[in-house]
Amino acid sequence: MLTPAAFQLYAQWVGIATLVLGAIAGLSFLFKWGFRFRLVGITGFSIVLTVGLFALSVVPFTRTVVPGAVRFLTVYDSGADQAVIVVSSTITESELDATLRQAASDLFSVGRLSRGRQQLTIRARAVVHPEPGLTQPLILGQVKRSLFDRKDDQMEIEIFSENLAKLPSAAERSLTDS
Fold first, then answer.
1. What is the C-alpha to C-alpha distance for residues 69 and 154, in angstroms, rounded to an integer?
2. 96-155: pLDDT as tens digits
3. What residues have CB less than 8 Å from 3, skipping those under 6 apart?
4. Domain parsing of the chain, residue ranges
5. β-sheet with 156-159: strand ranges across
6. How far is CA 50 from the centre of its chain?
7. Shortest CA distance to 42 belongs to which of 23, 57, 68?
8. pTM over 0.70
9. What are phi and psi of 175, to 5 degrees?
10. If pLDDT is split at 50, 70 and 90, which confidence band does 60 have?
11. Whether 41 contacts 24, CB under 8 Å
């Protein structure tokens, strides 16, 4: 992954190239070259690239990694205050806690609509098959975090132990796999 320092270096080089292109564009107007307007366009585009690369070097973009979190998929996201993730039916309580924290970090965005609410609610679900031909989604837990504060220290994590107990055990999974 590229770091802000790498983007700063790229911004410097593209900035130097932009200045050179600007000087050539100025000379093209002085000598009335036929392609002078193309050079103006190229210089303008180079300015946009320089500003974009500089912005990427200033704004830190890091992904928080929560130890113990397992892979999840986002299956519903309202773009506002609700989201649902799906996790494996083999998840443990500690993995679920870490995964809810990871999802709260990953799904945070300053562009979410609040609709009058102050919290983003993310529910974790798993799919179980209590009998052949029957599929049942189980809500295993949820996390509520602030819609406005990236470093929310007041996250409310709720794990539904009664639903977690309904997940198949390792012995049951090995019987259904064979």
1. 19
2. 999 999 999 988 887 787 777 788 999 999 998 888 889 889 999 999 998 888 888 889
3. none
4. 4-58, 73-166
5. 73-77, 82-86, 119-131, 134-146, 156-159
6. 25
7. 23
8. no
9. -70, -40
10. low
11. no
Q: What is the C-alpha to C-alpha distance for residues 16 and 1, in angstroms, rounded to an integer?
A: 24
In terms of phi and psi (left: phi > 0; alpha: psi -120 to 50; beta: otherwise), the region of 42 is alpha
Task: Provide DSSP, 2-18.
Answer: --HHHHHHHHHHHHHHH
Look-up: residue for tokens 């992954």? 1
- Nearest to residue 5, comparing CAs of 45, 61, 49, 64? 61
- The Cα–Cα gap between 72 and 126 comes to 10
State which amino acid sits at residue 67. P
Helices 4-30 and 36-58: crossing angle in degrees, nearest 10, is 160
Q: Which amino acid is at 168?
A: P
- Residue 143's DSSP bridge partners are 122, 157
